[in-house]
Every structure is written in C-alpha cells, then in structure tokens.
Amino acid sequence: MLFGTHPISTQIGAHVVVNASVPHERCPNCGYYELDAEVAELIEVQAASVVMSEATEPDPKAVRIARKALGMSQAALAQELGLTQETISRYETGALPIVPEYHLALAGLLGREERKRRAGQNTLQLAHTGTEG
User: Fold this and answer.
1) What is the mean pLDDT of residues 82-86?
2) What's the maximum distance between 2 C-alpha atoms anywhere in the chain?
3) Of 29, 63, 118, 129, whose CB has the highest number of CB atoms within 10 Å?
4) One-character DSSP codes across the chain
5) Which pLDDT score, from 0 to 100, does residue 73 have?
6) Amino acid 125: pLDDT
C-alpha cells in the first residue's frame, strides 16, 4: 500500500460527485484503497453538500444521505428547517419533491458541518469537488 492522493467518486442518489484529490493508501497493483473514517465522513458531507447546492431537483436518496451525513434524525432535521418530520419523510421517499429553498437550506447545513469537520482536521485537505450526471 502506497500513500498518495487520488480521485474518489461518491454516488449520492442519481448523482456522482468526484473529489479530485483525496489522501489515502492505495495498492499500486490492484487499485484497492482504504480511507480513514474521518476522511470518509468528510467526503460524504462534501458530496451531499455539492448535490444539494448544484442539483436543481435532488433525488430523494440524496436527501436521506444528506440528513445522515449531518448525523440527524428526521425529527431533528425537520426542527432545524422549520418543517415536520412527516415532510422530511416525504422528501426522502419521493412522495413530495423537495422545494428549492429547503434543499438550499440543507446545503447550508452541510456546508456548516463540513467547515466544523475541517476545523477539527488541520492536516486534512481535500480538493474541490464537482458533480457528474
């Protein structure tokens, strides 16, 4: 296993988010890699943040992944956004499309979480992420 930086793709619902340069160990022969748990969690928060910020209609799975990346229950997220738990559940199942102001508010929460996690990881520097598809 060799330590270096390599691109990592994360599937968030129907969206693929590519982080251009993630520090991790990778096997030079087969490409197998391992991520530190804190790095993996930060990548998930970043990817969910990108999808919520850039997708015009995030898929219901993306809403659930974003909530989980925040470490929140449906009730806690509902309270944070001024909604009901039932509304969050409907967003996550696709029974109700998430309205733009709420997916942008969710992006803001994810951005705050990302900054908090980065502050605790002075040596962790992940490159800019972008979406595909």
Assistant:
1) 96
2) 51
3) 63
4) -EEEEEEEEEEETTEEEEEEEEEEEE-TTT--EE--HHHHHHHHHHHHHHHHHH-SS--HHHHHHHHHHTT--HHHHHHHHT--HHHHHHHHHTSSPPPHHHHHHHHHHHHHHHHHHHHT-TT-----EEEE-
5) 96
6) 45
CATH of domain 37-125: 1.10.260
Cα–Cα distance for residue pair 17/9, rounded to 1 Å = 6
**pLDDT for residue 94:** 92
Q: What is the pLDDT of residues 28-41, one digit of tens each?
A: 888 787 777 777 78
Residue 13, burial from CB neighbour count under 10 angstroms (0-12, 13-18, 19+): middle
